[in-house]
Design goal:
This protein has helices at 32-38, 53-65, 70-79, 99-111, 126-138, 152-158, 196-213, 215-229, 233-253, 268-277, 285-302, 308-320, 333-341, 370-380, and strands spanning 9-13, 20-25, 43-49, 84-90, 118-124, 144-149, 163-168, 171-178, 183-187, 353-356, 362-365. By secondary structure, it is an alpha/beta fold. A seven-stranded mixed sheet has the order 1-2-9-6-5-3-4, sandwiched between helices. It is globular and about 65 Å long. Residues 68-79 have low confidence and may be disordered. The structure holds nicotinamide-adenine-dinucleotide.
Length: 381
């Protein structure tokens, strides 16, 4: 007897007319009605990369075209009359989250003769999601897009909330737009093929949610690390849902980051500077965020805002999840500070950072003392 399929966890981001559903569960790539409901228009362009596509693109395409699904075929084919499904595969990696890749998406849309009657489907991790979302925001001033995240990081963070962007050589995510997806469909089965290092990098963002706003969740991660690292389905799905719920609440209250949403950047100003200084090729994004959270915690302790014991607890949890906690050798603190000053969160040249008051409590702090930042960077290299 085969086990009955476990129903997905369903959440939502409440943004009035732009509200959208988030579904998290096993087997969702084959959920034709759910995928069909998220598409609008006559054209669907699946944007993916050459690592994810061989694994999952066919499953998604089959669901979109309802191949091999006799029960649904008639009903849903009729609901999407004459829909064309096209694929665009980009090379893998952050180095391709660029304007040049966005231009390839525009070329593909033009070749499809798409106008506003098209939906872009982002199948992949945060790189594909950010890039495809950005292209969707720009094409004819905005078309629909659907996030189908396939990394832990994308499931818990980047697929939710509508931040889209590409990188420039001068800095990460410098060109972008707020553009909410029409749906987020996270098939947790895809995590089975995620390399262990990428899974761990995703846990950096998971830990971030506990660190910035939920001490109980943080303690739960301390208790459940083994199950989570072993990719146990129930523990993983519940953890992803918890993060999405926390993010959805924050986004609903502060969509364009006028206040509370900035807290989600805990560790990111440091982390982005490290990623940029390393040419987007050294640490993974989540790994850089892990180091950045430790730096933010140490800085907070040095400034008397948090207890050093909390920093030790954060370092221990990050290490438990196999994440780095020190700045890679050879990075010059002054260069990192220069890169941090280019960060979007800064106002008129001063350094605005997310500091914390210990596990579960974080604040946006303007005008952080540069000497204190330099000291913490010098201490950590
Ligand atoms: N928009 C936001 O709010 C937001 C938030 C956090 C991060 N981000 C962005 O997300 C990006 C990082 O995302 P990421 O960590 O998912 O990286 P990624 O997209 O590069 O994916 C990581 C690697 O895993 C591969 N991969 C993806 N799914 C797989 C699967 N199921 N099986 C096997 N391999 C798979 C990818 O091809 C890639 O090699 C960064 O660009 C970051 O700036 C955006």
């Amino acid at each position: 007897m085969t086990a009955a399929p476990v129903a997905p966890i369903e959440l939502g981001v409440e943004l009035g007319a732009r509200s959208y559903p988030i579904a998290i569960g096993a087997g969702l790539l084959g959920d034709a009605p759910r995928i069909a409901a998220a598409i609008c228009g006559r054209h669907a362009l699946i944007v993916s990369n050459d690592v994810v596509a061989p694994l999952y693109l066919e499953r998604l395409e089959n669901a979109l075209l309802h191949r091999g699904d006799d029960v649904l075929q008639g009903e849903h084919r009729a609901s999407l009359p004459g829909m064309t499904v096209t694929r665009l595969l980009l090379p893998d990696g952050e180095a391709f989250k660029t304007l040049a890749s966005a231009a390839q998406v525009f070329d593909a849309l033009a070749a499809m003769k798409a106008n506003r009657d098209a939906t872009i489907i982002a199948l992949g991790g945060g790189v594909i999601g950010d890039l495809a979302g950005f292209a969707a925001a720009c094409w004819m001033r905005g078309i629909a897009f659907v996030q189908v995240p396939t990394t832990l990081l994308a499931m818990v963070d980047s697929s939710v909330g509508g931040k889209t962007a590409v990188d420039l050589a001068q800095g990460k995510n410098l060109v972008g737009a707020f553009h909410q997806p029409r749906a987020v469909i996270a098939d947790t089965d895809t995590l089975a093929t995620l390399p262990a290092r990428e899974l761990r990098a995703g846990f950096a963002e998971v830990i971030k949610y506990g660190a910035l706003g939920d001490a109980e969740f943080f303690a739960g991660l301390e208790r459940n690390a083994d199950a989570l690292l072993a990719r146990e389905g129930e523990a993983l799905t519940a953890t992803i849902a918890h993060c999405c719920r926390q993010k959805a609440g924050i986004v609903a209250r502060d969509e364009t980051e006028q206040g509370e949403r900035a807290l989600l950047n805990l560790g990111h100003t440091f982390g982005h500077a490290i990623e940029t200084a390393m040419g987007y090729g050294g640490l993974l994004h989540g790994e850089a965020v892990a180091v950045g959270m430790v730096l933010a915690a140490r800085l907070s302790a040095n400034l008397g805002r948090a207890a050093a014991a909390d920093t030790h607890r954060l370092v221990a949890l990050l290490e438990r999840f196999g994440l780095p906690t020190t700045v890679p050798a050879g990075l010059d603190p002054d260069r990192l500070i220069g890169l941090m000053q280019l960060d979007k969160k800064n106002l008129s040249g001063s350094l605005r950072l997310i500091l914390w008051r210990g596990v579960g409590k974080a604040d946006v702090v303007p005008d952080v003392d540069l000497a204190a930042v330099r000291a913490v960077l010098a201490q950590a290299t």
